[in-house]
Write a structure and sequence with these properties.
Residues 82-152 form the PDZ domain. The chain has 544 residues and is of the alpha+beta class. It is built from 16 helices and 23 strands. Helix 1 runs antiparallel to helix 2, helix 6 (204-217) packs parallel to helix 7 and helix 10 packs across helix 14.
Length: 544
């Protein structure tokens, strides 16, 4: 144990020596050296004297990650396994079972098997709960159990899983898996093309260019570019995607930092594919980072009409830094700014409120900026659409239902109770929605509104001040009103919930490819974008 500790303790000491040589820290030399010495001494004492056996690597991993939590969510430490996961995220390539997998404490849940890949070939379905991998029980595995599914192409992995309460087994032969940045492109009608850009990997711009060229060859005169749910990725690919629709040498994004070398401007480098084709870009609350660079640049340059809901507001730039022993850190070095000068970042992690939550700029404090043609746009975090749709922004109750995986779980139950053979004929009914409400009751679904939380805090203060009896009856009436609202809220959000349910259920029968086909025929955002493009005067009015 003590020999192992000696090796582990050398690492922070060496890091401390290197750390102190950086010129940026000269003014803090003594304080940094002092804190490293305190930490090293504490780390040594805990590992040598704690009553139970400790794992120095786990303790250090926790200590580092806990320290970084006080900065922002994007400044992170990566151990060797994390580094590999990051590589997969950027390239879209890996070797494994070909499925989106959710790692929980005691199981791995198949969220989506990719059509034609190993998990699909082995018969696994969305909702299957893997409880054992090659004899290893997931519930007792200390590291990320999802790593157990990865391995060399051609090797097999045996899994034990639960499906609808019954235990089953499968042997899956691993393959090289390529996740496309553009999983779908097709014609909406004889003049409008539709492109889904899912992630900004190394192949994002190449795949988007290919999609644009194919659609134009099929007669596309306008394009709907779908960035909804696109969490971002590589900065240079965001610039390259923007370059498809705007000329060479056009400013796309600026990064600003306290370190001079990170202050940069990014311009388009190539000739555009098409600078005139009318373009609608769809965004939502999960469009982030690189998605916001593209949407923000196209909006500021009056090159596209943005439709949907305000984007996430992830405007912090990270740079990977290699450490020792195969580890790495990703550190926030600057902020993104659109061509008009707007900062994309929505949350201020350096000025938190009394509860420790990051703050955001109030709407009345937004700053106005001008697009290339003089339209007024505002900062405040994220990209505000030119046309905001209520259906795109998830309501609080819908968000709670989605976060509790209840849309997903209901779709799993639906799949095993219904036969759907023709996508064109699929449509959820009022009876299906009533079944969903009964399902929520069976799962004891509840959610707390911000108003309830505020009332709870207020009544706690009232009790301290012995005023609870004075306001008790009024408080009870308020709670009744809130509960009545929550009961009706599900019905008020029926359209939004039915849309989410339909998309998830369609994916079960017809995979993601079928979901996009369903989208084109039924999705309200795509329909709105199509209507704008079909009316040239409406399209131009948004850009004037």
């Amino acid at each position: 144990m003590k020999k192992l500790l000696t090796k582990k303790i050398v690492l922070p000491i060496l890091i401390g020596v290197v750390f102190l040589t950086g010129s940026a820290f000269k003014s803090d030399f003594f304080e940094i050296a002092k804190q490293i010495e305190i930490f090293t001494t504490l780390f040594k004492e805990v590992n040598m004297n704690y009553v139970d056996e400790t794992n120095p690597a786990d303790l250090m991993d926790t200590a580092i990650k806990s320290m970084l939590q006080d900065l922002d969510p994007y400044t992170n430490f990566y151990n060797e396994q994390d580094v590999e996961a990051s590589r997969i995220n950027n390239t879209g390539d890996y070797t494994g079972i070909g499925a989106s997998v959710l790692t929980l404490k005691d199981k791995l849940v198949i969220m989506e098997p990719y059509k034609g890949f190993p998990a699909d070939k082995a018969g696994l379905k969305a909702g299957d709960e893997i409880i054992k991998v090659d004899g290893t029980v997931v519930a007792t595995f200390n590291d990320d159990a999802g790593n157990l599914l990865q391995g060399t192409a051609g090797t097999t992995v045996d899994v034990t899983y639960l499906r609808q309460g019954k235990t089953q087994t499968a042997t899956i032969k691993r393959e090289a898996v390529e996740i496309h940045a553009v999983p779908h492109h097709s014609m909406i009608d004889d003049k409008i093309g539709y492109i889904v850009l899912r992630k900004f990997t190394e192949k994002a711009s190449a795949e988007t260019i290919n999609a644009v060229r194919i659609l134009k060859s099929q007669g596309a005169k306008q394009i709907v570019l779908d960035l909804r749910g696109n969490l971002g990725g590589l900065l240079n690919e965001a610039v390259n995607v923007t370059n498809i629709f705007v000329p060479k040498n056009q400013l796309v994004v600026t990064t600003k930092s306290k370190v001079d070398k990170y202050n940069k401007t990014y311009y388009t480098q190539k000739e555009a594919i098409d600078t005139d084709i009318p373009l609608v870009v769809l965004i939502d609350g999960r469009s982030a980072s690189a998605s916001e660079i593209v949407a923000g640049a196209l909006q500021d340059l009056d090159r596209a009409v943005i439709v949907g809901a305000r984007s996430f507001g992830k405007g912090l730039v990270q740079r990977p830094k290699s450490l020792v022993y195969g580890t790495q850190m990703k550190i926030t070095i600057s902020r993104y700014y659109t061509p008009s000068g707007r900062c994309i970042q929505s949350l201020d992690y350096w000025n938190r409120d009394d509860t420790g939550k990051a703050t955001r700029v109030k709407k009345e404090n937004y700053t106005a900026f001008k697009t290339k043609r003089g339209r007024t746009v505002y900062d405040g975090g994220g990209i505000q659409p030119d046309l905001e749709l209520d259906i795109t922004k998830l309501s609080p109750i819908t968000t709670a239902i989605v976060n509790d995986q209840l849309i997903f779980d209901f779709a799993t139950d639906y799949y095993y109770k219904h036969q759907v053979s023709d996508l064109k004929d699929f449509k959820l009914t009022d009876d299906d929605f009533n079944a969903f409400k009964d399902f929520l009751k069976s799962k004891n679904f509840t959610f707390e509104t911000k108003t309830e939380k505020a009332f709870d805090d207020a009544i706690a203060v009232a009790k301290e001040e012995a005023l609870d009896e004075v306001i008790d009856s009024n408080y009870t009436n308020l709670l009744k009103s809130l509960n009545s609202y929550k009961t009706k809220a599900i019905d008020h959000n029926k359209t939004q919930l039915m849309g989410l349910l339909s998309e998830e259920i369609v994916k079960r029968y017809f995979y993601r490819e079928g979901m996009y086909t369903y989208y084109i025929a039924n999705n309200p955002e795509i329909k709105t974008g199509t209507e704008i493009l079909k009316n040239p005067s409406t399209y131009l009015n948004y850009l004037k």
